[in-house]
Amino acid sequence: MSSSSEFDDIIDKDVYKYYADGEWKVSASGKFVPIINPSTRQLQYKVQACTQEEVNKALESAKAAQKLWAKVPLWKRAEALHKAAALLKQYKDPIAQCLVKEVAKPAKDAVTEVVRSGDLISYCAEEGVRILSEGKFLVSDSFPGNERNKLCLASKIPLGVVLAIPPFNYPVNLAVSKIAPALIAGNSVVLKPPTQGAVSGLHMVHCFHLAGFPKGLISCITGKGSEIGDFLTMHPGVNCISFTGGDTGIAISKKAGMVPLQMELGGKDACIVLEDADLELVAANIIKGGFSYSGQRCTAIKVVLVMESVADALVEKVVAKVNKLKVGAPEDDCDITAVVSESSAKFIEGLVMDAKEKGATFCQEYKREGNLIWPLLLDHVRPDMRIAWEEPFGPVLPVIRINSVEEGIHHCNASNFALQGCVFTKDINKAMMISDAMETGTVQINSAPARGPDHFPFQGLRDSGIGSQGITNSINMMTKVKTTVINLPSPSYTMG
Fold first, then answer.
1. Among residues 430, 495, 444, 469, which one has the least CA distance to residue 174?
2. Among candidates 384, 45, 9, which has minimal Cα distance to 200?
3. What are phi and psi of 269, to 5 degrees?
4. Dist CA 423 CA 431 (whole Å)
5. For residue 1, what pLDDT band results from cuts at 50, 70 and 90?
6. In this structure, which long-range contacts are made by residues 125-128, counting pairs with CB atoms below 8 Å and at least 24 apart in sequence?
7. 219-248: b (≥16 Cβ within 10 Å) or e
8. Is 309 exposed, middle or buried (0-12, 13-18, 19+ CB in 10 A)?
9. Closest listed residue to residue 451, CA positions, set 273, 293, 305
10. 8-state DSSP, 88
11. Where is the active site (predicted)?
12. N or C, which end of the chain has less CB nearby within 10 Å?
């Protein structure tokens, strides 16, 4: 149960309602989807298992509401978003408590996620006013063969209904990073939250409800992916899909047809360490980048490529820091908490056992209790080990020793994933040349990969995604250009 009376109307007995047409509703299916607490492995919450018919109704409402919303003055749309941002911050504690229970996010990180989400909404409102208030004016005589008799006015208009699908690891922040740009641009939104993270998502949507957004403009549809997943992503009423997650995104992109896509999928973010790097700085960033939220981040450092001459010294520093990480319950603000599910824990264990069989050096003893996996650094990892290429999404980090910078760049570029990478060196020229050679969406110099600040462009190449995110890019992506051409009488002039 939620700890705030403000949220009483979003739950029916012990099952959370879904949100459509401005109301909290119980699904006609009579079924629910269970949400298991990753730490206790017990049933924590229940959410509605919506039907395809309920999806249809939500999309109908979204289409009608969008037509009216697009006519609302831009400053009023911004005002409504600021109100939602304030409410999200006001109710940060009950929402954070849900994050702790359904995705095992450490308590302090959970509060940070909600506050950051409020800030993102506010920034988005301001940035949207700036971007969308500007049009473009062209005259025809700049192109050969034309006279100055046509004036072209270009402006940005909304796409229509945006389907937003965030992942479990940031179910509030990565939802609002889709919802806020969509709304400021004049679109409506149908949110399909992840199962683990659905209750946090429903609480967040309730803040938009309390802010007084028009009925039907925002929906939150919960349910089984097998029942409504493809039905949603292939629905003719959807005009744009913004998805963050794993392999599912590739399947969606194949089925989506002529719909604009914004996708951020997996990452195998490489950390290249040169001989002249500040090893204390590198070690601190490997801990922050590789192990925060138990490594369950697309932008986590997932492979360390270190020059052989400094590898021993670096591994020693990292091991000392790993051994100080606090392992346990998210309520106790531990550094390492349970991974999201048993299937995730088993997958991680499979990668670890493969590395063990093939001779990797274990810098700590491998330890797992249920979904809780103790942090583990694997040294002397070779390219024939699965963990060299696959994304564990857990607190397990491989170290590959390299003999040249080229070897490190080659490993980075040979990956299916290309979200982010980082390079540590005191030589800015080398850093820039390596960054140029790394085929990845973002390269961080002397810092671990990160998505934020949230207005920075954020994108991946290859299997890591389509399109670019970040507030400005998302607003632009969720609009299309509309032009009006004014035809004037041909000028009669003589050159003389």
1. 469
2. 45
3. -65, 120
4. 7
5. very low
6. 125/77, 125/78, 125/79, 125/81, 125/82, 125/85, 125/180, 125/184, 126/78, 127/184, 127/455, 127/471, 127/472, 127/475, 128/74, 128/77, 128/78, 128/81, 128/181, 128/184, 128/185, 128/475
7. bbbbbebebbbeebbebebbbbbbbbbeeb
8. exposed
9. 293
10. H
11. 264
12. C
Long-range pairs for 373-376: beta carbons < 8 A, 24 or more residues apart: 373/294, 373/336, 373/339, 373/345, 373/348, 373/349, 374/327, 374/336, 375/291, 375/322, 375/325, 375/327, 375/335, 375/336, 376/322, 376/352
Q: What is the pTM of this model?
A: 0.95
Catalytic residue set: 264
Q: What is the pLDDT of residues 415-458, one digit of tens each?
A: 999 999 999 999 999 999 999 999 999 999 999 999 989 999 99
Query: Are 465 and 442 a contacting pair, CB within 8 Å?
Result: no
Closest to 165 measured CA to CA, from 269, 267, 256? 256
Q: Which residue has the tokens 């910078």?
A: 405
pLDDT of residue 257: 87
- Specify whether the CB–CB gap between 186 and 69 falls below 8 A: yes
66-75 per-position pLDDT tens digit: 999 999 999 9
- pLDDT tops 50 at residue 2: no
Domains identified in the chain and CATH numbers:
5-265 (3.40.605.10), 269-445 (3.40.309.10)
pLDDT > 90 in the chain, percent = 94
DSSP letters along 102-158, please?
A: HH---HHHHHHHHHHHHHHHHHHHHHHHHHHT--EEEEGGGSTT--S-EEEEEEEEE
What are the C-alpha distances in Å from 446 to residues 83, 279, 356, 415, 419? 38, 10, 31, 22, 17
